[in-house]
Structure formats: structure tokens, C-alpha cells
Design brief:
Elements lengths: L6 E2 L2 H4 L1 H15 L4 H27 L1 E3 L4 E6 L2 E6 L4 E3 L4 H23 L4 H23 L6 H10 L8 E3 L4 E3 L9 H6 L1
Antiparallel strand pairs: 1-3, 2-5, 3-4, 6-7
Helix pairs in contact: 2-3, 3-4, 3-5, 5-6
């Protein structure tokens, strides 16, 4: 894309006014009273999109995508991502590199930026990162895998053993349980359903 609202994703981590405006639009859309709730939900969405790119490329094609030149576009607090130059490196053991690219390259600086704007807990955001990873893997397997657990879930389990995510979720026979909550229950949308 040449224009049409696309911007370098690193602006989210370095421009507090830009990020603050997006978090406010998320808060308005969800009718959340607390900015930290909107920050949490926004982080969860970005994390899910990042993990989805990695899960799909690695499991589907054995390619580690280059995630350093991402663009984003936001509308009403919802994010779309675009890879500027879609290139990847083929390999069998690239899980750790994917974790570095997503966790260190994007989610750590986004977490820091959000914590400077709101009182959102770093542990909560770490739980969101793990939950988004597992959710992306489940979606991949639901659409692509014939077996259970599928290859996306198996990769996600390996990634959850990374020290940056360890302890964020507890695995059970049927799935997993988070150690904390994403705060979605504190939105008016959730309360209206209950």
C-alpha cells in the first residue's frame, strides 16, 4: 500500500499521542470505563495478529517471516497489519526466532508504551501474549489441520515454554487456563451479554 492510512508499526511504540488516540477509540468502541481495559484488549488484538502471521508461515510453509518492516492501519481502534516486503527464511527449527521477533521486536515495546499511558499490568499483557498465541494456533488448526492437537497447537506449546511466556498459562487436559484475565469482562459489551 502506498498511503491509505498505512504507517510503520513502530510508531505505535514511539508516539504516545498516536497510541493514546487508538486506545481511546478502543475504549469508546467497547464502552470501557478504564483506559487499562482498552489497552489490554488492543494489545491482545495486536498480539493475535502478529502470532497469526508467524504460525501460518512456519506451520504452513516452514518459513520464518521477516516481521521487522510491518505497517499498520487503524480504524475505530481495530488494527490491520501489512508486511512491507513479504520475505521469509526456510527452516525447521525457527520457533525461538519467531518468539524473538514477536516478543522482543513488537510486544515488549508495545507493552512498555501502553504501561506509560495506563496502569495496565505487565503480567496481564504477558498473559495476553500467551493467550493470543494459543488462540492463533487453535484458529490455524481449526482451518487447516485434520488432527488434534494440530501442528499450530504443537508449535504454540513449544513457544509457551519460552521464559518470556512461562507461567502465563497453565495447560490442562482440554486446553489451558490463564493466570490472569484480559479484563474484557469490564467492558459494557460483556456486561450487556451477561
Amino acid at each position: 500500500p502506498v498511503d491509505d492510512g498505512w504507517q510503520p508499526v513502530h510508531r505505535l511504540y514511539t508516539d504516545p499521542d498516536l497510541l493514546g488516540g487508538i486506545v481511546e477509540r478502543v475504549r469508546t468502541r467497547l464502552a470501557a470505563t478504564e483506559p487499562r481495559v482498552a489497552a489490554s484488549i488492543f494489545f491482545l488484538g495486536v498480539a493475535a495478529r502478529l502470532w497469526s502471521i508467524g504460525i501460518g508461515a512456519i506451520v504452513g510453509h516452514r518459513l520464518l517471516p521477516a516481521l521487522d518492516e510491518l505497517l499498520f492501519r487503524e480504524a475505530d481502534g481495530q488494527i490491520a497489519l501489512h508486511i512491507v516486503r513479504p520475505v521469509g527464511r526456510r527452516g525447521d527449527d525457527v520457533a525461538a526466532e519467531l518468539a524473538d521477533a514477536v516478543l522482543d521486536g513488537h510486544l515488549a515495546p508495545l507493552s512498555t508504551a501502553l504501561q506509560q499511558l495506563t496502569k495496565v499490568s505487565p503480567e496481564l499483557l504477558r498473559g495476553n501474549a500467551a493467550s493470543a498465541l494459543l488462540g492463533a494456533a487453535r484458529e490455524y488448526d481449526r482451518h487447516r489441520a485434520a488432527c488434534s492437537p494440530g501442528p499450530g497447537w504443537r508449535l504454540a506449546r513449544i513457544l509457551c515454554d519460552d521464559q518470556r511466556l512461562s507461567g502465563a498459562v497453565c495447560f490442562t487436559n482440554n486446553g489451558y487456563r490463564r493466570g490472569n484475565c484480559c479484563l474484557y469482562y469490564r467492558t459494557a459489551r460483556h456486561r450487556a451479554r451477561g
